[in-house]
Design a protein that fits this description.
Mean pLDDT: 85
Low-confidence stretches: 443-448, 966-991, 1003-1013, 1016-1044, 1254-1258, 1401-1472
Radius of gyration: 33 Å
Distance between the termini: 81 Å
Shape: globular
Helix content: 25-40%
Strand order of the largest sheet: 21-25-19-33-30-31-32-44
Largest sheet: 8 strands, mixed
Number of helices: 45
């Protein structure tokens, strides 16, 4: 029979006949053939889960339907013959109703931008399906684990987990977060997609056919073969191998996501339908378990997890559960994983685990059938031709015996969905215990010798030097020899550890150093063997040894616990301030929400892909598209010559298409336009680009140091010097000075889920409609119009919603839309340009800062001199915003009476740097907090105290609120003791704090009606008049204004006293986190744990806000319904929701009070369009929502004033409204309204009335600017042996004024915090130093946090009684300010790393391990948590040696080795460095920062077989013989 493929999508039959390219991915076919929108394409790598679908297959033999979730972006559509595919729309939709899962996600605000949400819905549904099939009740842990293949950048995961937890039977609602409704939960049966009978029959008929169908592809030249037996497969392989045709064998096809090599061969051979390759069998004697090579990883794991299996198999399953994510494991096969290990050096966990388990592999071909060890499979044998003649047919595992034990673990950038940097598996078999030993054990006494090891397999997977850096899993033969035949006691353990270096030949790879691999391998081996040795250590009564043998393997994270608390302002202006459901959030849960990829799909549209430079700073030779134009589906090449002569070749200061030379790796040279996205991307790769050598260009610059040396700077549009007081003079009189500190800040990718995308449709009379994923329609309109050389009015820019922006879609969409427009202009057809994840990463970079600081301090900073260098790319873009943020925000919450700050923008040949969330301010926070940490380390003080003592404060208080009880003489060096912790900071030693907090509690307008705290059961506070309290160095009062308008000043900045809420949020978080008790707990924990260390830190933040001018339009229709068009862009921040709330409130003012507010369901938010709300500016800085709300209120007020004379009160809200509208518009559609029912509103960016609104008519002419404060406390835990870390708890306390929507704002705060946490922990940008090529350009190499990484206790509290009375509805911004709070994680990590680096626990080593020279300095002969502080106390000196004289380049270049994350700062005394922990603190960098140490030396010291240990100033522990 002729081949055709039939499957069903959401009840719609899809039949692909004849010459359809069955190699296309399912995601694209769903879009083109069905019109369903639920599968969002975010990465094309299987790394994010946004495209997840459920696939049901019918087993003709058993009659059973099996369901699994997969990534549609990796699934060739030919593999789905006879299947039922369910997208998120199939689970529930607007027309048919939404599912219970979708309802819960909506109610718990578990969707912000919404681009990732359909994938989470499918993942949750599949988990519940599995529970249903097994007859199990879903648990919170099962549902959390189901999300391991899904990423979200917006929410911070907490509301998603709450939505999942709400589906667990018997859940306590009090344990969940904010919910938009209070209706009781209803248990609803899980609905599954129907598997049609005709499709079942189709599967049966196919199964009954004698042979595989005749392949299709006569016209396309591509064949998709589906052999049904091994003999058919071998026949096909022989045929095409002999013909030397281009072919590939595929099964799960998940490897294409890793290697970006989508199968484009002429012949695809899909082996998934061969039954012999899908079997799972146990041998007759029960000694072997066999898996067919096509068994999915998920099925294998389920088999290993069965209760009937022994513990070693369960441990194997635990490790395999960390491979990729659920959707990948459901498709990926065991044989495919092993084949990729052989062919492409895959960082395989399966190979490591199975090799340790003693697996053998069946390799079959037309002429042979042989069993091989995994070592032989991975060897250099040239007669093994996998995928060309040989195939992996099966894998066989020996069934473990009762005396077997198995341990396995991998170290990765994050716990879930991250490949191994190193992994290790250990299989041990002990001899049967002797009778004496057994009796002794039962009697509680030792009887006979310990059982010896009769079988040992230790396997380590890592990049290996002898293989040229390739990854491979190999047996650790030297370790095995040391263990085999021995009783596993401490001596054997030491011998095994000593043998380990013989089995390692590590080599550095991007982000992973050879030193890390060596140290981690030692730590992993100890973790594997220590539990076996503990028995003998306990028998010896050696407590120090027992402490060293207490090891910890990171397991599945527990379900996080969260608590939210916010003031209840619902009675003031409902529905404003209510946690109402996000606008159209249910459409986001179903996937029906429209993004650029869903707009204007047409069978005649074309697709474009960029052609990118592979060189930086080179003369461009010929760009030859000839080879690309010969490929199927390719239509045209679009380059610089296609820009109209009247147009402009530059967009935002950068050439659109490079012509004469290229400036950076990845610069766009042109576009290939084709009939499909895959064909366009393939064509772009085929374009031949030539480069010419031109010595006059010089060498490319890739770092700040290189730019400084070359004198390569930009002149950004801002002042590059900030001066307050006289820092130079103050520095000379300061008691203590630290000169030339250095700190390097990290960069971060935006990782918005929706990639850069634009669709351009040519229209009549030379007009164009541009749909863009942008934060600024004005910018897109300008770019297209100027590139084409046409007036702006001929370009209509449109955006409904954006799948995340974070600053990356402010100006970067401009060249995307402009390039797409050039293609549409040339070809006269609709063109779609969407960057894939790799290109998107390469086209967007951010900022990096290095600075030199000098300051005077005895706890209180008196002067600060700072130089900041900001890393910019080959074109300026918006990188200057980062420097501007540093220049204006460096003081943060601190009083800096004398400041001199200089900044420079370094021009390099990297990708142009643009802004990312909190541009500049985040940099400023990191710099300033590092300065504070340095001061604290110098003096040996708790950094929390130093922060408090430097807070800006009201000058008319008798003393600083956090001044020490007894000020110490300037010359006194402080030695840390218990009084240094904030636990002792009460009202007596914080003289002015209580007075100030009391004054602040009264400093609220008597007209305010703040209510009690939601969820906390607190009563409303009583407020009186505002006292005359003035903060800062200067006093400013408006005539007649009450004292709440007095100003605080710091670094030349002013804001009202009632906005100075720093003490409230600081004390609030201190109390909420119980910081005093937590410090004691952490110190005790560190004292009693050798290999785990914890740290706790508090950090504050200040963020300056200025809501921008913006416009909006409101229209009322004859039936009373309302549409709203605002000038902002909905990016997931809830802007449209807040606008809708305001419209309901403002329109409700026309109605009788009892009938208010106006019904929100009768308000529709339109797309933002440049032809309706032009000149709106960008949506950024977290304040556009406020501007839009003010504009909407103004427009609604205009309409209400027109309707007020016609008011017709009736019995209900809607009846009154409709009757009133009917008075001026009859509704027949044939007559016009007698009153204008449309209105524009314009918020002009100025301060509001005292009530926060404009209803009184009078308004200030002053621009609205305000400041918001927040504070956070985080506790972390690090593992010295492995470098792994967990965030144990984070408490956030934030001043959000009167939140316009608490549910939305809490989500913004949590999401921003987790994004910042990623910057500090897992998100490492890697650039090839020789070429400037971005190496971290995929979900495989760039790791944002997952749901497993968030704090295990995550609490958010909004400050109450803090209205922003001159702002819009008394609100304050939330999205960007809260990102700064993530610095609490970084500095908690610093404390934990210091505890590890400098302490190594008294319990483990006692007083024998003393840091070199410490006892002489401090008078203490121990190794306590305070070692760093006591060491710092030796720094006392009136003046310190400055850094060597030389150029700026010399100074910066000497900051640190670029391959190292941690560095030290010399304060001027030899051997007394200040430890710097730079972000991100990845697993590798974190372990290296803790210092080098020898576990063997420590074990020998503990057993008395070696002399004492000594710690050098470098942090390396050594044995002193």
């Amino acid at each position: 029979m002729d081949q055709s493929v039939r499957f069903n999508v959401n009840g719609l039959d899809v039949i692909l006949k004849g010459d359809f390219d069955l190699g296309k991915n399912l995601n694209s076919v769903i879009k083109s053939e069905t019109g369903f929108k639920g599968t969002k394409l975010a990465c094309s790598e299987g790394g994010c889960g946004a495209c997840a679908v459920q696939v049901a297959s019918f087993n003709a033999g058993t009659g059973q339907v099996e369901r699994r979730s997969i990534n549609s972006c990796l699934c060739p559509v030919g593999s789905l013959d006879g299947c039922v595919v369910t997208t998120s729309e199939g689970l529930g939709c607007f027309k048919k109703g939404f599912s219970q899962i979708q309802d819960r996600f909506a109610e718990y605000s578990a969707s912000q931008c919404g681009f990732c949400t359909p994938g989470f819905i499918v993942a949750t549904h599949q988990a519940l399906t599995k529970c249903q099939e097994k007859g199990e009740k879903p648990t919170e842990d099962i549902l959390q684990k189901s999300l391991d293949g899904n990423l979200c950048r917006c929410t911070g995961y907490r509301p998603i987990l709450d939505a999942c937890k709400s589906l667990v039977a018997g859940v306590d609602v009090e344990d969940l977060g904010v919910r938009s409704c209070s209706t009781p939960f209803k248990a609803e049966p899980l609905q599954q997609a129907h598997f049609p009978d005709h499709l079942k029959q189709y599967v049966k008929d196919k199964a009954a056919a004698a042979s595989m169908p005749t392949p299709s592809g006569r016209l396309t030249g591509k064949l998709y073969l589906t052999p049904k037996t091994l003999s058919e497969l071998f026949s096909v392989l022989e045929q095409y191998a002999n013909q030397q045709d281009d072919f590939r064998v595929i099964a799960g096809n998940t490897g294409a996501g890793v290697y970006h090599d989508w199968p484009l061969e002429k012949v695809l051979i899909d082996i998934k339908g061969i039954p012999d390759l899908a079997r799972i069998e146990t041998s007759k004697d029960g000694t072997e378990l066999l898996f067919g090579a096509n068994v999915s990883q998920s099925r294998a794991i389920e088999e290993l997890q069965k209760p009937s299996q022994l513990a070693p198999f369960h441990r194997m399953a635990d490790h395999l559960l960390r491979i990729a994510g659920t959707h990948v494991r459901s498709a990926a096969t065991l044989g495919g994983n092993i084949a990729l290990g052989r062919l492409k050096d895959l960082e395989s966990d399966i190979i490591t685990v199975f090799m340790a388990a003693g697996a053998s592999v069946q390799v079959a071909s037309q002429s042979s059938n042989r069993w091989m060890s995994l070592e032989d499979i991975l060897g250099t044998s040239t007669d093994l031709k996998l995928g060309k003649g040989d195939i992996i047919a099966a894998i066989k595992l020996p069934v473990p015996q009762a005396t077997d034990s198995f341990w396995s673990h991998k170290l990765s950038q994050r716990f879930w969905n991250s490949h191994a940097m190193i992994n290790m598996s250990v299989w041990l078999r002990k001899e049967q215990p002797s009778l004496a030993s057994t009796l002794g054990s039962k009697l509680g006494v030792r009887g006979g010798a310990e059982p010896r090891l009769t079988q040992v397999r230790v396997v380590i997977g890592s990049p290996r030097q002898e293989l040229g850096g390739r990854w491979q899993g190999q047996r650790a033969r030297a370790v095995e020899r040391a263990l085999l035949g021995s009783a596993l006691d401490v001596d054997t353990l030491i011998q095994a550890l000593q043998a380990l270096p013989q089995d390692l030949q590590p080599t550095p790879t991007p982000g992973v150093t050879a030193e890390f691999v060596s140290g981690a391998a030692e730590g992993l081996l100890l973790t594997a063997l220590a539990p076996h040795v503990m028995k003998s250590a306990s028998a010896q009564g050696n407590s120090r040894l027992q402490d060293l043998l207490k090891v910890h393997s990171m397991g599945e994270p527990p379900f996080p616990v969260s608590r939210h608390s916010f003031p209840d302002y619902s009675s003031i202006a409902a529905p404003v301030a209510l946690p109402v459901e996000k606008d159209r959030v249910r459409l986001q849960t179903s996937g029906e929400a429209v993004y650029v990829a869903d707009v204007g799909t047409s069978t005649h549209e074309l697709f474009a892909a960029p052609v990118e430079s592979t060189r930086a700073l080179a003369k461009l030779g010929k760009v030859d598209p000839a080879a690309a134009l010969k490929l199927p589906g390719v239509v045209a090449f679009v380059g610089p010559d296609d820009i109209p002569k009247t147009g402009c070749a530059e967009v935002f200061g950068q050439v659109l298409f490079a012509k004469d030379k290229v400036e950076y790796h990845g610069q766009i040279l042109g576009l290939i336009v084709a009939e499909s996205q895959v064909e366009a991307e393939r064509g772009a790769q085929a374009v031949q680009v030539g480069y010419l050598e031109d010595p006059t260009l010089g060498a490319p610059l890739f770092s700040i140091a290189e730019a400084i040396k070359a004198g390569s700077y930009y002149d950004p549009p801002m002042d590059l010097v900030t001066t307050i007081g006289d820092a130079k003079k103050a520095m000379k009189t300061a008691q203590h000075v630290i000169k030339n500190g250095r700190y390097k800040l990290p960069s971060q990718q935006h990782f918005y889920m929706e990639p850069q995308a634009a669709v351009v449709l040519p229209d009549e009379a030379g007009t164009f409609t541009v749909t863009s994923s942008t934060q600024s329609l004005d910018a897109v309109q300008k770019a297209v119009a100027e590139t084409l050389g046409i007036p702006w009015h001929k370009v209509t820019a449109v955006c409904r919603r954006v799948g995340g922006g974070f600053g990356g879609k402010a100006v970067r969409p401009m060249p995307v839309a402009a390039a797409c427009a050039v293609a549409a202009h040339k070809l006269g057809k609709q063109v779609r340009l969407t960057y894939n994840r790799n290109t998107d990463f390469r086209q967007n970079g951010e900022t990096e800062v290095e600075y030199s600081v000098g300051f005077d301090a005895d706890g209180i900073i008196s002067a600060l001199e700072c130089k900041a260098w900001c890393l910019a790319g080959a074109f300026l873009d918006l990188a200057w915003n980062d420097l501007y943020g540093v220049m204006t925000g460096l003081d943060q919450v601190y009083e800096l009476p004398n400041l001199h700050l200089e900044g420079k923008m370094c021009r390099t040949n990297l990708v142009p740097r643009t802004i990312v969330r909190g541009p500049g301010f985040l940099n400023a926070v990191m710099i300033m907090e590092q300065v504070v940490e340095h001061v604290a380390g110098y003096l040996g003080l708790d950094a929390t105290l130093v922060r408090e003592r430097n807070f800006m404060y009201p000058k008319d208080l008798p003393a600083h609120p956090y001044a020490p009880t007894t000020p110490k003489p300037k010359s006194q060096v402080h030695t840390p003791d218990a009084t240094d912790t904030p636990t002792k900071t009460d009202d007596q030693n914080c003289n002015g704090k209580a007075e100030f907090l009391e004054a602040q509690s009264e400093a609220k307008s008597s007209s305010d009606d703040d209510k009690g705290r939601k969820d906390m059961g607190e009563t409303p506070s009583k407020r009186g008049t505002t006292p005359d309290v003035v903060c800062g160095r200067f006093q400013m009062k408006e005539p007649g204004a009450n004292a709440s308008e007095a100003s605080v000043h710091s670094s030349g900045r002013d804001f009202p006293v009632n906005q100075y809420t720093l003490p409230q949020v600081w004390e609030g978080v201190k109390k909420q986190a119980d910081y005093a008790a937590k410090q004691r707990e952490v110190e005790e924990f560190n004292r009693t744990h050798a290999w785990l260390k914890r740290g706790v830190a508090m950090t504050p933040t200040r963020f300056d806000c200025a809501p921008p001018p913006i416009n909006a339009a409101v229209s009322v229709y004859a039936d009373g319904s309302v549409t709203v068009t605002h000038g902002g862009i909905e990016c997931g921040q809830g802007l449209s929701t807040k606008v809708k709330q305001m419209a309901a409130f403002a329109l409700g003012q026309l109605l009788p009070e009892s009938q208010r507010p106006f019904p929100m369901d009768m308000i529709h938010i339109n797309d933002t369009r440049s032809d309706i709300v032009p000149n709106a500016g960008p949506t950024w800085s977290s304040t556009t929502s406020e501007g839009c709300v003010a504009a909407i209120e103004q427009a609604c007020n205009k309409i209400c004033s027109r309707l007020r004379p016609h008011l017709q009160p009736k019995g209900s809200t809607w009846e009154t409204w409709q009757a009133t509208v009917a008075e001026v518009q009859e509704g027949s559609g044939l007559t016009p309204a007698s009153v204008m029912l449309s209105a524009y509103g314009f918020y002009d960016g100025t301060a509001r009335d005292a009530d926060g609104r404009t209803t009184k008519g009078a308004k200030s002419s002053k621009p609205l600017k305000y400041t918001t404060f927040g504070a956070a406390c985080s506790e972390v835990e690090v593992n010295l042996l492995t470098g792994e870390k967990t965030i144990q708890r984070s408490d956030l306390y934030f001043d959000c004024g009167r939140s316009l929507n608490p549910a939305v704002d809490i989500g913004q705060i949590e999401g921003a915090f987790i994004m910042g946490m990623g910057l500090c922990t897992t998100e490492e940008i890697l650039v090839e130093p020789q070429t400037g090529k971005l190496l971290s350009d995929s979900t495989w190499t760039y790791k944002i946090p997952t749901a497993a990484d968030i704090p295990r206790h995550f609490n958010v509290t909004f400050l109450k009684d803090s209205p922003n009375i001159r702002s819009v509805m008394s609100s304050k911004a939330s999205g960007e300010p809260s990102m700064m709070l993530s610095m609490s994680v970084l500095y908690a990590l610093r404390r934990a790393v210091l505890a590890a680096k400098n302490g190594l626990s008294e319990a483990a080593l006692g007083s024998r391990a003393v840091p070199k020279g410490l006892s002489q300095v401090s008078g203490r002969d121990d190794n306590s948590l305070h070692w760093h502080g006591m060491k710092s106390a030796t720094h006392a000196a009136d003046s310190l040696r400055p850094s060597p004289e030389g150029s700026e380049a010399a100074g910066i270049a000497s900051v640190r080795d670029e391959t190292s994350t941690s560095c030290v700062i010399e304060d001027g005394l030899q051997g007394n460095p200040f430890f710097v922990l730079e972000a991100p603190v990845t697993t590798c960098h974190g372990k290296e920062a803790m210092g080098k140490f020898s576990i063997v030396d420590m074990l020998q010291a503990a057993t008395g077989s070696a002399a004492d240990l000594e710690c050098h100033s470098s942090g390396e522990w050594v044995v002193v013989h």
